[in-house]
Design goal:
This protein has 313 residues and is of the alpha+beta class. It binds zinc ion (ZN). The site of zinc ion (ZN) has 8 residues, from loops. Zinc ion (ZN) binds next to loops.
Length: 313
């Protein structure tokens, strides 16, 4: 059974394809950035926590708003410069909670949860990488308004790619948190886990944050041992996926188990078990007789599993 997906082809998880030109050389040029905001083709994504403003435009919804529209809806005046898409400037903007409330009864614009908007197909796949940038970067500014060194309010700099402290002069950069996510296999079986907050019936790859002064390989070995009591080897990089919740980089890996007896860490996982290839295929296709499900195709976990299922097809 070959696994395919029309929206997220195997090997192309959400947020990871169609990167825009970041045009980083423009970030320090304040005059140029102001001119780009006034550009007739300038557009902005307006982000509120895990949601995005989406304008319903005669049946074709879009999250790319003109800056005038964004400000009229109550978006904060400050922008972050995301880059150039086909030469056209794209920005990210935040919006305060009271402005979002005022929009809830608005007919023209909706405040959509990003995950829901993706699963409903409201957003073009080629925009997801830029939307991830907007969400992660705008969210970082909202959570990091004060200098971690001296406590003074810091100010946005470099088109939004830095915050500077006017008091102690420390420069703060937006963080990306590395997470390893791995498909551990044992010949014809793979190891999947269930977290209690997963939707009913859903199983996925094990994952965990890379810790300070740890290699990717050591993080894979440690997480698999901690969560499932399985030892593994032959760790190989598959591909990565930006994951803007709030600003992770999922580092997809494969590994080969050298032990088979699972000991579940119940503080991390509800359960973990081995699945054979045929069962994994049914879960990805949402055809499992017991209603067991694999991860959603937007997530790299789906692709790790699908490439393993397809390798035997
Ligand atoms: Zn400071």
């Amino acid at each position: 059974m070959t696994i395919t997906n029309a929206t997220f082809p195997v090997g192309a998880p959400g947020f990871s394809t169609h990167p825009i030109d970041r045009a980083a050389h423009l970030r320090e040029d304040v005059d140029k950035l102001l001119a780009l905001e006034d550009h007739s083709h300038a557009r902005a994504y307006v982000v509120h926590r895990d949601s995005l403003l989406i304008r319903r435009n005669g049946g074709s919804p879009t999250a790319l708003l003109t800056l005038e529209e964004a400000r009229a809806y109550g978006a904060n005046p400050g922008t972050v410069f995301l880059g150039l898409s086909d030469g056209k400037p794209v920005f990210g903007m935040g919006i305060a909670a009271n402005s979002v409330e005022a929009l809830l009864t608005h007919e023209e614009v909706a405040v959509n949860d990003l995950r829901g908007a993706i699963t409903q197909g409201l957003l073009p796949v080629h925009e997801l990488s830029t939307i991830a940038m907007a969400k992660a970067l705008v969210g970082w500014h909202q959570r990091h308004g004060f200098c971690a060194n001296c406590g003074q309010r810091s100010v946005m700099a470099s088109g939004g790619w830095r915050r500077d402290c006017p008091n102690c002069k420390t420069q703060h950069f937006p963080r990306t948190d590395p997470v390893v996510i791995m498909l551990v296999t044992d010949g014809e079986r793979c190891l999947l886990g269930r977290q209690s907050q997963f939707p009913a019936g859903m199983w996925s790859c094990l994952a965990g944050f890379v810790e300070i002064a740890e290699t990717i390989e050591d993080a894979v070995r440690r997480e698999v041992l901690e969560e499932a009591g399985i030892q593994c080897t032959d760790i190989a990089y598959y591909r990565a996926q930006p994951w803007p919740y709030p600003s992770s980089l999922m580092i997809g890996c494969t590994a080969r188990a050298t032990t088979t007896d699972i000991v579940v860490d119940k503080t991390e996982l509800e359960d973990a078990r081995w699945f054979d290839r045929a069962e994994a295929a049914l879960m990805l296709k949402r055809e499992h007789p017991d209603g067991k499900l694999g991860p959603h195709p937007v997530a790299i976990a789906y692709h790790l599993l699908a490439q393993w299922v397809n390798a035997a097809a």
